[in-house]
Amino acid sequence: MSQKVLLNAKEVNIILHRLACQLIENHNDFSNTVLIGLQPRGVFLADRIAKILKEDYKVENIKLGYLDITFYRDDFRRSEKPLEANLTKIDFIVEEKNIVFIDDVLYSGRSIRAALTAIQSFGRPNEIELLTLIDRRFSRHLPIQPDYRGRQVDVINSEKVKVNWKEHDNEDSVYLIEK
Amino acid sequence: MSELSVNHLLGIKYLQEKDIQLIFETADHFKEVINRPIKKVPSLRDITIANLFFENSTRTKLSFELAEKRLSADVLNFSSSQSSVKKGETLIDTVNNILSMKVDMVVMRHPNPGAGVFLSKHVKASIINAGDGAHEHPTQALLDSYSIREKLGDVRGKKVVIVGDILHSRVALSNIFALQLQGAQVMVCGPKTLIPKYINELGVKVETNLRKALNWCDVANMLRVQNERMDISYFPSTREYTQQFGVNRDLLDSLDKEITIMHPGPINRGVEITSDVADSKQSIILDQVQNGVAVRMAVIYLLASKIKQ
């Protein structure tokens, strides 16, 4: 198994700041916006973006939630591994809100499809956007594209993109792993 | 571990402790789901479940049906009083006829102990035992333990007394297995005639004085006297039973500590428990009912994930 660095800590940091600025450009003071990190790996990115918005750009009242999509996935009984659920934490109403879904890697688009269904259980949002750190090009199974993209990469199916976070994996980095 | 060690839920005695933990962790997620504005997830939309009730039930049947519908499964309901069982059809024939309509899972209540085990050996479907005679009622025991865990934080180390008609109770047996598996101490309390002869072999304490039992325990699970299963008289009168084994406010107030009161339902108010106790803050009877849906969703979801396509 070989691995190659796609992004190092410095590059990740620059990209996160750019994504935060792009969000501010479109959502101003975030008064009607909620950020939703998708479980399991999207929540690290969502936490980080929320932190940068609060601390570096002084945006008050960031509403941040986590959404687990396990029960909405379309590969129940089809995947080799059993699906394990994670915590959903949305303690606000999403009715008429502008939602930004946040996930680390966009691959087939099926997780996002599941998230679009799952979020309906919490109300009818005004609009939903998608932010991803890594966009795997030419790999989509569904017509889903990100509105905010950290880095676009060309990766073949036998390769895996792994995003590491300081809080969880001891470093900020993105690796391309050949299986 | 994210998979059950069994393909059917026939009884608690076939489970391992990690199975129970997995069911509880999954039930936590479903409890969050059933408190959302929209209480439904699409996980089981390609699964069909038959609820076969060869014996009367209100709570369990409604709870299973709701759990199945919350998971988006297709549901078939069958009760023996309106069926060809009355015309002499055997259990295997009845179930195989239903399964030939492409049913993936069977939830069954049956008056005969071991009916679920028997069925699991003869038909190709995942079986959930919803009560087989006086043998086991595994989902009730799971939701009881889940409710204790929710109220007291953990089941391990807790002292639980099961009061009443132990002899005819499938709830008692499943609860004893489940509580012991999770490291709780179990006592049974009731008239000697309603305590099974070999109960000591299960490693439970026996007490015939209710006050002593309640002073010992953290949780008291009050059972109903199952008159419909009694062919002879086991105690002189209901009044005398209530005086010795019924819980009332005065008795609870006279204890050294505040204990938690449970009841699997249906309640005979004024017999094993008075209304002021059943409706008090110490009682978690309605929490048990709500948790029943979440726990059954977890069991169905986890068993369904093991059905091969």
Structure characterization notes:
The complex is a heterodimer of chains A (179) and B (309). Chain A has 179 residues and is an alpha/beta fold. In chain A, 26% of the residues lie in helices and 30% in strands. Chain A has helices at residues 9-27, 42-55, 110-119, 166-169; strands spanning 2-7, 33-38, 63-67, 98-106, 127-136, 148-153, 159-164, 173-178. In chain A, helix 3 links the parallel strand 4 (98-106) and strand 5 (127-136). In chain A, helix 1 (9-27) crosses helix 2. With 309 residues, chain B is of the alpha/beta class. Chain B is built from 11 helices and 9 strands. The interface between A and B is medium-sized, with 22 and 24 residues.
Task: Give a quick set of tags describing it.
heterodimer, A: 179 residues, alpha/beta, three-stranded antiparallel beta sheet, 8 strands, 26% helix, globular, B: 309 residues, five-stranded parallel beta sheet, four-stranded parallel beta sheet, 11 helices, 9 strands, 38% helix, 15% strand
Helical coverage of chain A, percent range: 25-40%
Please report which band the strand proportion of chain B falls in: under 5%, 5-15%, 15-25%, 25-35%, 35-45% or over 45%: 5-15%
Average of the residue pLDDT scores of chain B: 92
**Tally of contiguous helical segments of chain A:** 4
- Counting DSSP H or I runs of 4 or more residues, the number of helices of chain B is 11
Mean pLDDT of chain A: 92
Total number of strands of chain A? 8
End-to-end CA span of chain B: 22 Å
Bin the helical content of chain B: 25-40%
What's the shape of chain A?
A: globular
Distance between the termini of chain A: 5 Å
